[in-house]
Amino acid sequence: HAPERPGPAGSPSGAGRAGGPDRPAPVPRRFPGQPVQIDHGPRNRPQVALTFHGEGDPALAGRILADAERAGARLTVLAVGTWLDAHPRMARRILDGGHDLGNHTQSHLDINALDEDQAYAEITGCAERLRRLTGSIGTWFRPSRSRYATPLVQDLARRAGYPHVLAHDVDSLDATATGVAAVTRKVAGELRDGAVVSLHLGRPDTVAALPLLLTEIARRRLRAVTATELLS
């Protein structure tokens, strides 16, 4: 896919109802009583957060967003900076659907293995792209290639403006699992109040699994909300 150009303010990829330079998108929030690194929400409320690593074919990403919106679900997308460089319209598309948009580093390297300067550049590089596209650095930071951030990376994220690191407690394994049934079975088997589920945009099996997961969430009388809503 050829890189896209951001549209002017007022166009679908410019300033919209969810943000833009003149109406900034939501910013990171501090949640009192929560640890720096958050991997689940309250266990006494019937809500879950479906969180997506933002990479891959934007057409598949668009299908995931549309399917979620039809079901009344709101997602959290942690975007990779190089993906935003190639597909800048996706930032506005995500926000305009009522979803959370966050930072999943600039290049999706193993951030916990990088030295301090490199790791900080990975965080701030993506933050700068998010700010340029939306007026905000995004609501969350998630480490790349790891469920959890090291204490150093947690400190660097805080320095970059993110009070919390968003981890997860349910791994769909959609990056490695073969088949829709495997993804659906893995998530359904671990779903509970407050779950934060890790999924990936741009994977055909995930696109096919999402309607099944949303049906299962509804059957259990749970609601799929953004990570911000889950913790609020």
Automatic annotation (TrEMBL):
SUPFAM superfamilies: Glycoside hydrolase/deacetylase
Region described as Disordered: spans on this chain: 1-47
Domain of life, source organism: Bacteria
NodB homology domain location: 46-225
GO molecular function: hydrolase activity, acting on carbon-nitrogen (but not peptide) bonds
Short name of one Pfam family: Polysacc_deac_1
GO biological process terms on file: carbohydrate metabolic process
PANTHER family assigned to the protein according to its UniProt record, in alphabetical order: GLYCOSYL TRANSFERASE-RELATED
Protein name per its UniProtKB record: Polysaccharide deacetylase family protein
Species this chain originates from: Streptomyces halstedii
